Amino acid sequence: MRFEATVGGATPIVNLSRELLMGERIASIRGILNGTSNFILHRMKEEGHPFSQALKEAQEIGIAEKDPSYDIEGVDSACKAAILANAIFGLDRTYGEVKRVGITGVTEEAVSLAAEEKKVIRLIAEVSSNRLEVSPRLVPMGHPLSIGGTLNIVQIQTDLAGEITVAGRGAGKLETASAILSDLVALKKADSPRTRKRL
Questions:
Q1: Residue from 56, 80, 119, 197 carrying the catalytic annotation
Q2: Which domain holds residue 34?
Q3: SS3 for 183?
Q4: In a domain, 100, yes or no
Protein backbone atom coordinates (compact mmCIF):
# COMPACT_ATOMS: atom_id res chain seq x y z
CA MET A 1 0.00 0.00 0.00
CA ARG A 2 1.20 3.50 -0.83
CA PHE A 3 -0.03 6.63 0.93
CA GLU A 4 1.77 9.70 -0.36
CA ALA A 5 -1.38 11.86 -0.25
CA THR A 6 -1.74 11.43 3.53
CA VAL A 7 1.13 13.83 4.24
CA GLY A 8 1.70 17.01 2.28
CA GLY A 9 -0.78 16.39 -0.55
CA ALA A 10 1.14 16.98 -3.78
CA THR A 11 4.41 17.59 -1.89
CA PRO A 12 6.31 14.27 -2.30
CA ILE A 13 7.62 13.76 1.21
CA VAL A 14 7.06 10.03 1.77
CA ASN A 15 8.12 8.73 -1.65
CA LEU A 16 11.06 11.14 -1.81
CA SER A 17 12.36 9.91 1.53
CA ARG A 18 11.70 6.20 1.01
CA GLU A 19 12.73 5.85 -2.62
CA LEU A 20 14.87 8.65 -4.03
CA LEU A 21 16.81 9.00 -0.77
CA MET A 22 17.07 5.28 0.00
CA GLY A 23 20.86 5.53 0.09
CA GLU A 24 20.76 8.23 2.76
CA ARG A 25 20.49 8.02 6.51
CA ILE A 26 17.77 10.49 7.40
CA ALA A 27 18.43 12.12 10.76
CA SER A 28 15.31 14.27 11.00
CA ILE A 29 12.39 15.81 9.16
CA ARG A 30 10.90 19.13 10.17
CA GLY A 31 8.49 21.41 8.53
CA ILE A 32 5.03 22.88 8.07
CA LEU A 33 2.43 20.17 7.45
CA ASN A 34 -0.79 22.18 7.80
CA GLY A 35 -1.62 24.95 5.35
CA THR A 36 -4.58 26.31 7.33
CA SER A 37 -2.49 27.08 10.41
CA ASN A 38 0.23 28.53 8.21
CA PHE A 39 -2.25 30.84 6.49
CA ILE A 40 -3.59 32.09 9.84
CA LEU A 41 -0.13 32.78 11.28
CA HIS A 42 0.92 34.48 8.03
CA ARG A 43 -2.11 36.78 8.06
CA MET A 44 -1.57 37.64 11.72
CA LYS A 45 1.93 38.79 10.88
CA GLU A 46 1.26 40.53 7.56
CA GLU A 47 -2.01 42.27 8.47
CA GLY A 48 -1.72 42.52 12.25
CA HIS A 49 -4.97 40.56 12.63
CA PRO A 50 -5.85 38.92 15.94
CA PHE A 51 -6.09 35.13 15.82
CA SER A 52 -9.91 35.13 15.71
CA GLN A 53 -10.03 37.50 12.72
CA ALA A 54 -7.38 35.57 10.77
CA LEU A 55 -9.29 32.34 11.44
CA LYS A 56 -12.57 33.91 10.30
CA GLU A 57 -10.90 35.05 7.08
CA ALA A 58 -9.57 31.53 6.48
CA GLN A 59 -13.08 30.14 6.95
CA GLU A 60 -14.67 32.73 4.66
CA ILE A 61 -12.37 31.90 1.76
CA GLY A 62 -12.68 28.15 2.29
CA ILE A 63 -9.23 27.40 3.68
CA ALA A 64 -10.46 26.48 7.18
CA GLU A 65 -13.32 24.14 8.02
CA LYS A 66 -16.40 25.29 9.93
CA ASP A 67 -14.90 23.36 12.85
CA PRO A 68 -11.18 24.15 12.45
CA SER A 69 -10.04 22.48 15.67
CA TYR A 70 -8.03 19.69 13.98
CA ASP A 71 -5.96 22.30 12.14
CA ILE A 72 -5.49 25.01 14.78
CA GLU A 73 -4.94 22.60 17.67
CA GLY A 74 -2.21 20.75 15.79
CA VAL A 75 -4.11 17.46 15.49
CA ASP A 76 -3.74 17.27 11.70
CA SER A 77 0.01 17.99 11.89
CA ALA A 78 0.45 15.47 14.71
CA CYS A 79 -1.26 12.72 12.68
CA LYS A 80 1.04 13.46 9.75
CA ALA A 81 4.09 13.50 12.05
CA ALA A 82 3.16 10.02 13.32
CA ILE A 83 2.81 8.77 9.73
CA LEU A 84 6.28 10.11 8.90
CA ALA A 85 7.77 8.59 12.06
CA ASN A 86 6.46 5.17 11.08
CA ALA A 87 7.06 5.38 7.33
CA ILE A 88 10.50 7.00 7.33
CA PHE A 89 12.04 6.04 10.66
CA GLY A 90 10.48 2.59 11.03
CA LEU A 91 8.87 3.46 14.35
CA ASP A 92 5.50 2.32 15.68
CA ARG A 93 3.95 5.55 16.94
CA THR A 94 0.38 6.76 17.23
CA TYR A 95 -1.05 10.25 17.13
CA GLY A 96 -1.35 10.22 20.93
CA GLU A 97 2.40 9.86 21.31
CA VAL A 98 3.11 13.13 19.51
CA LYS A 99 3.89 16.05 21.83
CA ARG A 100 1.44 18.64 20.55
CA VAL A 101 0.75 22.35 21.00
CA GLY A 102 -1.52 24.15 18.55
CA ILE A 103 -1.67 27.82 17.54
CA THR A 104 -4.74 28.94 19.49
CA GLY A 105 -2.51 30.51 22.14
CA VAL A 106 -0.52 32.63 19.67
CA THR A 107 -1.36 36.28 20.32
CA GLU A 108 -0.94 39.47 18.30
CA GLU A 109 1.65 40.55 20.85
CA ALA A 110 3.69 37.37 20.35
CA VAL A 111 3.60 37.83 16.56
CA SER A 112 4.62 41.48 16.92
CA LEU A 113 7.49 40.69 19.30
CA ALA A 114 8.74 37.99 16.93
CA ALA A 115 8.67 40.49 14.04
CA GLU A 116 10.77 42.94 16.06
CA GLU A 117 13.41 40.21 16.26
CA LYS A 118 13.05 39.58 12.50
CA LYS A 119 11.31 36.27 13.13
CA VAL A 120 7.93 34.72 12.41
CA ILE A 121 5.91 32.12 14.30
CA ARG A 122 5.17 28.90 12.45
CA LEU A 123 3.59 25.59 13.48
CA ILE A 124 6.50 23.21 13.02
CA ALA A 125 6.41 19.42 13.09
CA GLU A 126 9.68 17.71 14.00
CA VAL A 127 10.22 14.00 13.46
CA SER A 128 13.26 11.88 14.23
CA SER A 129 14.00 8.54 15.86
CA ASN A 130 13.88 10.18 19.30
CA ARG A 131 11.68 13.26 18.82
CA LEU A 132 8.06 13.57 17.78
CA GLU A 133 6.63 17.03 18.29
CA VAL A 134 4.32 19.68 16.81
CA SER A 135 4.46 23.19 18.24
CA PRO A 136 4.61 26.90 17.35
CA ARG A 137 8.23 27.98 16.94
CA LEU A 138 10.18 31.11 16.12
CA VAL A 139 11.67 30.99 12.62
CA PRO A 140 14.04 33.66 11.21
CA MET A 141 12.57 35.68 8.37
CA GLY A 142 13.97 34.47 5.07
CA HIS A 143 14.47 30.93 6.38
CA PRO A 144 12.74 28.29 4.19
CA LEU A 145 10.41 27.40 7.08
CA SER A 146 9.21 31.02 7.29
CA ILE A 147 7.14 30.41 4.14
CA GLY A 148 3.69 32.01 4.13
CA GLY A 149 0.31 31.21 2.67
CA THR A 150 -1.08 27.68 2.55
CA LEU A 151 2.02 25.88 1.31
CA ASN A 152 3.56 22.87 3.04
CA ILE A 153 7.32 22.61 3.35
CA VAL A 154 9.72 20.11 4.88
CA GLN A 155 13.45 19.96 5.42
CA ILE A 156 14.96 16.49 5.35
CA GLN A 157 18.33 16.23 7.09
CA THR A 158 20.48 13.51 5.53
CA ASP A 159 24.00 12.26 6.15
CA LEU A 160 25.38 12.48 2.59
CA ALA A 161 23.23 14.98 0.69
CA GLY A 162 22.88 17.32 3.65
CA GLU A 163 19.66 19.26 3.98
CA ILE A 164 17.01 18.80 1.30
CA THR A 165 14.01 21.13 1.22
CA VAL A 166 10.79 20.42 -0.65
CA ALA A 167 7.70 22.64 -0.73
CA GLY A 168 4.33 22.39 -2.41
CA ARG A 169 0.59 22.48 -2.06
CA GLY A 170 -0.51 20.40 0.87
CA ALA A 171 -4.23 20.12 0.18
CA GLY A 172 -6.83 20.34 -2.55
CA LYS A 173 -8.63 18.08 -5.03
CA LEU A 174 -6.04 18.27 -7.81
CA GLU A 175 -3.10 18.06 -5.40
CA THR A 176 -4.51 14.95 -3.75
CA ALA A 177 -5.27 13.45 -7.17
CA SER A 178 -1.66 14.11 -8.19
CA ALA A 179 -0.31 12.16 -5.22
CA ILE A 180 -2.75 9.29 -5.69
CA LEU A 181 -2.00 9.08 -9.41
CA SER A 182 1.73 8.95 -8.65
CA ASP A 183 1.16 6.03 -6.28
CA LEU A 184 -1.09 4.20 -8.75
CA VAL A 185 1.49 4.53 -11.54
CA ALA A 186 4.22 3.25 -9.20
CA LEU A 187 2.07 0.25 -8.23
CA LYS A 188 1.32 -0.49 -11.87
CA LYS A 189 5.00 -0.34 -12.79
CA ALA A 190 5.90 -2.63 -9.89
CA ASP A 191 3.33 -5.15 -11.13
CA SER A 192 4.46 -5.12 -14.76
CA PRO A 193 5.87 -8.40 -16.21
CA ARG A 194 9.25 -6.75 -16.89
CA THR A 195 9.53 -5.57 -13.28
CA ARG A 196 8.44 -8.94 -11.89
CA LYS A 197 11.07 -10.67 -14.05
CA ARG A 198 13.80 -8.37 -12.72
CA LEU A 199 12.72 -9.07 -9.15
A1: 80
A2: 7-169
A3: helix
A4: yes
3-state secondary structure of 28: strand
**Do the domain assignments include residue 58?**
yes
What is the per-residue pLDDT across 112-161, written as a single tens digit (0 to 9) for each?
999 999 999 999 999 999 999 999 999 999 999 999 999 899 999 999 99
For 69, 72, 109, 114, 119, the CA distances from 14, given in Å and listed in that order, are 25, 23, 36, 32, 29
Query: What is the Cα 108 distance to its own chain's centre?
Result: 24
Which pTM does this prediction carry?
A: 0.89
Total structural domains in the chain? Answer: 1
Indicate the length of the chain as a whole number.
199
Which CATH number goes with the domain that contains 57? 3.30.360.10
To the query of whether residue 80 is one of the catalytic residues in this protein, the response is yes
